[in-house]
Design goal:
With 190 residues, the chain is mainly α. The chain folds into 2 domains: 142 residues, no CATH class; 44 residues. It contains 10 helices and no strands.
Length: 190
């Protein structure tokens, strides 16, 4: 089932979950659904904003609660984590407001912020405001450019039937390589 089909069938709950799990792509497709008249604009913005807000609150809480856990420490070793902390230390509120718009920092940033001493209430307020803006921006983009996006996806689908088996095989191979490498690292660490 495609993202578009999920949004059409399940509507706002799919938009809520997709905004938290995947992000911009689902929210823009939600805007396309608004353009088609399948979802209301304000409910779509609220679902997208709430999905993003809840996911980031969960990641923040995980960073706060498990900052000494080996999995969080592993995330702390990533270059994106260090970039997030550096940017956060320069301008904390601005960073909280903007990280969801920065590619590669969306998931790691709330975990990184959770490992700092930032008060929970401050993160909660800034995260709520940022999620509202983010949801509005990406639903609006999908709505305004709905016809163009539908046309583009149509062309992608036509090409996708040719390349889908190749892409699938590449993903399977990449997954196997990733699994084997991580397993070796874990064995070496023990």
């Amino acid at each position: 089932m495609t993202l578009e089909a999920l949004l059409a069938q399940y509507g706002l709950p799919a938009l809520f979950l997709g905004a938290g799990v995947e992000g911009e792509t689902v929210v823009v497709l939600g805007g396309v659904m608004v353009h088609r008249g399948l979802l209301g604009y304000v409910p779509a913005v609220i679902a997208a904003a709430m999905g993003s807000f809840v996911a980031d609150q969960i990641f923040f809480a995980l960073g706060r609660r498990f900052r000494n856990n080996r999995y969080v420490r592993k995330v702390m070793e990533r270059p994106a984590f260090h970039k997030a902390i550096e940017a956060f230390e320069k301008r904390p509120t601005l960073f909280i407001f903007g990280f969801r718009f920065l590619y590669g920092l969306r998931t790691v940033s709330p975990i990184a912020i959770g490992t700092t001493n930032l008060p929970v209430a401050r993160f909660l307020a800034a995260n709520a405001a940022a999620a509202a803006v983010w949801g509005t921006v990406f639903v609006t983009l999908g709505y305004l450019f709905g016809k163009s996006i539908e046309t583009l996806f149509g062309h992608i689908r036509e090409a996708g039937y040719v390349f889908l088996p190749v892409i699938g095989a590449m993903l399977v191979i990449a997954g196997i390589v990733y699994f084997v490498r991580n397993r070796r690292k874990v064995k070496a660490a023990d």
